[in-house]
Amino acid sequence: MFTASIRSSLRARAVAQVPRMASITKPSIMSRASVLPQQIRAYSDHHEETFEEFTARYEQEFEKAYDLFEVQRTLNNCFSYDLVPAPVVIEKALQACRRVNDYPTAVRTFEALKHKVENKEQYQAYLDELKDIRQELGIDLKEDLYADEA
After folding, report:
1. How many other β-carbons are positioned within 10 Å of the β-carbon of residue 70?
2. How many structural domains is the chain composed of?
3. What is the CA radius of gyration of the chain?
4. Residue 95 to residue 81: CA distance in whole angstroms
5. Which run of H or of E encompasses 128?
6. Which domain holds residue 88?
7. What is the pTM (predicted TM-score) of this model?
8. Residues 88, 56: contact at Cβ < 8 Å?
9. Which of 37, 44, 62, 144 could form a disulfide with 92 if both were Cys (CB 3.0 to 4.6 A apart)?
10. Are 129 and 87 in contact (CB under 8 A)?
């Protein structure tokens, strides 16, 4: 196909375009050791999120969740932390449950909240705080639905 002269000119162009590696030298062991500690990243070093930042982040996530999978995933992530979410976060979660038309997840949110708090008084305080949204959305508690099991 190609003649020998065309082939050799193409090869010469390709070789001319490749940068020369002769000018690059290996760094010495001492220079590597002095650079290495600066390049190590401490993986445990991260930003400590405050409770207010946590609350704001999950409020936004529940506002953005527009399908059942996202609502349940966000609820799971929210309850996986070693703290009890603020009532405002629970309210946004209940509104998200209503938006995706999922009553069982709304009921389970209160069930998860009951297991997350330390005592019955805290749970009752959450129920009192969220009474209006529960009435507005028509959400019953598991204790009300299954009184003989509680």
Report:
1. 15
2. 1
3. 30
4. 21
5. helix 120-129
6. 73-145
7. 0.67
8. no
9. 62
10. yes
Query: What six digits make up the tokens of 55?
Result: 């609350």
Q: What per-residue confidence (pLDDT) applies to 27? A: 55
The gap from C-alpha 44 to its chain's centroid, in whole angstroms, comes to 17
Which residue is associated with the tokens 């030298």?
Answer: 25
- Angstrom distance (rounded) from CA 96 to CA 90: 10
Q: Using alpha carbons, select from 105, 50, 104 the residue that is nearest to residue 72.
A: 105
Residues 6+ apart with CB under 8 A from 145: 107
Cα–Cα dist 96/68, whole Å: 9
Handedness of CA 98, 103, 108, 113 (dihedral sign): positive
Residue 85 near residue 55, CB atoms below 8 Å:
yes
CATH at 93: 1.25.40.40
Along the chain (150 residues), what's the average pLDDT of each consecutive run of 10 residues? 57 55 53 55 70 96 95 96 95 97 95 94 96 95 80
Q: From the CB of residue 29, how many other CB atoms can be counted at a distance below 10 Å?
A: 8
Name the one residue in this structure whose structure tokens are 């996986």: 80
Quick one: DSSP state of residue 38? H
Contacts with 102 (C-beta within 8 Å, 6 or more apart), sequence order: 68, 71
Q: Which residue has tokens 């508690």? A: 141
Residue 58 lies in a domain: no
